[in-house]
Amino acid sequence: MRLEWLRPKSELKEVLHEPRSVGPEIAYWIFSDLTIEKWKDMTVIAPGLYGKEFPKTYGHYHTPHVYETYKLVHGDGTFLLQKKHYENYVASGARTKKWIPEQVDEVYMVKFSAGDELIIPQDFGHSWSNVGATPLITFDDWTSGHTATDYEAIKKLKGMAFYITLGGNGIKFVPNPNYKKLPDPKVITAKEFQRLYPIS
Predict the structure, then answer these.
(1) For the whole model, what pTM was predicted?
(2) Is the C-alpha dihedral spanning 101, 43, 9, 146 positive or negative?
C-alpha cells in the first residue's frame, strides 16, 4: 500500500459551503495498491468541521460504462449520490440528449453500516462526508484513474447539489444555490439504494 495523494483544505475550499472557513488542514488521504480481496484503494477522511460543513471528498462523476464499488470500513459517513439530468433535442435531424450539469434528477444521502458495499450506477456523481468524530475509512475498487473532466462540473458549480452540515439537532442538508430546481434529498441505507439501482 502506498499514499497515492492527499487533498489539502486549500484545494477543497473551492467546493466548500464556506470557502474561508477553518478546519482540518488535510481533508482526506487516498492510499492505493491495496491487496485486500478486490479492493484497490483506501480513503481516509478527517473528522472535524469547515465552519459548519463536515469534511468531505471533492466529488466527481465517472466516464460512461465504468462502475465503482465502495465499502465502509470504519466511521460514520454520509454518501451523497446525485443523478445527472438530460434534456432531449434534435440536431441535424437526429434525436439526442444533452447533459445539464446545473440540474439533477435525484439526490440520495446514503447511510452505511460498517461492512456495507454499494456499486455506483451510471450517471451518478458522488462524494463522501465524514459526519462522525473519528476518521472515516472506505475501500473502493477503482482502477481506471481520474481525469480533470470527472471533476469539472463539480468545480464549476462549487460543489455537489447539497452541502452536508451540522444542524441544530444533527445533520442538515443545505442546497447549493448554483443548481436549479433541486429535488428534495432522500435519506436511505446502502442496501435500500442498491435495491433501487441493482447492478447485474
Answers:
(1) 0.93
(2) negative
What is the spatial distance between Cα 183 and Cα 139, in angstroms, rounded to a whole number? 29
Kindly state the cell numbers that stand for 144. Answer: 481506471
Query: Is 182 exposed, middle or buried (CB count within 10 Å of its CB: 0-12, 13-18, 19+)?
Result: middle
Q: Answer left, alpha or beta for residue 13, where phi above 0 means left and psi between -120 and 50 means alpha.
A: alpha
Q: Which fold has domain 2-196?
A: Jelly Rolls (2.60.120)
Find all residues with CB under 8 Å of 182, minimum gap 6, and list them: 104, 107, 161, 162, 175, 176
pLDDT tens digit string along 28-77? 999 999 988 899 999 999 999 999 999 999 999 987 777 899 999 999 99
Q: Considering only CA atoms, which of 29, 10, 31, 32 is closest in space to residue 21?
A: 10
Ordered by start, the domain boundaries in the chain are 2-196
Helix (H), strand (E) at residue 195: helix 190-196
Q: What pLDDT was estimated at residue 146?
A: 65
C-beta of residue 128 within 8 angstroms of C-beta of residue 138: yes
